[in-house]
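Hey all, quick one. A colleague (J.T.) asked me to put the arginine job into the tracker so the inputs and the structure tokens live in one place instead of scattered across chat threads. No bug as far as I know, just bookkeeping. Sequence used:
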Amino acid sequence: MKNEKKIFSIILVLAMVIGTVALSGCTQETENKIIVGTSADFKPFEYKAQNGTIIGFDIDLIKKILTDQGYTVEVQDIGFDSLIPALQTGKINVIAAAMTITDVRKQQVDFSNPYYNANQAVLVKVGADVNITNINDLANYSVGAQTGTTGWGWINDTLVATGKLDKSKFNSYELYTDAVSDLINGPTRVGAIVIDSPVAKAFAKSGNVKIVLNITTNESYGFAVEKGNAELVNKINTGLTAVMATTYWEDLVEKYFTT
Ligand code: ARG
């Protein structure tokens, strides 16, 4: 009887061990897949190709980094303002969205090392009766930006909070592509857009909009991971440093920032 009990407990322990190993095998598999969240309205960093595929500087870069680190990558298009909540609730694992590293965001997420620098710029419609030569001139028009961005925050802090711009003339957009369409199709609704300088340049290439003002904000983009996920952020940093030291980096810059 005693022996039987012993054998039974040994079997039980064995079963538990095997079960644990099998289970950890499963999580291992799901852990190897990374869901990257972006807001695909921000050419050349993230945008949709004609066939709908999400491409761009950030997308190529993070895919390269993560696949080199042994992960498989899926990209999801989410509104910019929903990216941090999606990261915090585990719906996505990484944000690759030309996201500026800010102190406020650092309290909510962890950032990789910076990979690109930018400032803000003011876009207006080509041929529109809009005269903006300094920041104060913006107050004479409706001004727009994508909700939750640093451009949006700049308008809010510099123009609205100081009383220079009436709240009713501050337009928030879910997507920067919508803001620019609005600028082109109806300058009575929005006269100017505040947007990251490299993206302003890309929009200006269409010939429909132009940059009339540069605002120095000294921003740096980083990839974001859930707060405390040191393992993933370390892997991204290792991969980023490695990629930056190869011609892949130059080719990527050339691919998305020239012509
Ligand atoms: N760099 C700005 C920020 O972090 C704008 C980023 C917008 N990104 C985008 N994919 N729409 O707030």
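Adding what we noticed when we looked at it: The CA atoms of residues 29 and 86 lie 21 Å apart. The pocket of arginine is lined by residues 39, 41-42, 46, 80, 97-100, 146, 149-150, 176, 196, 219 (CB under 6 Å).
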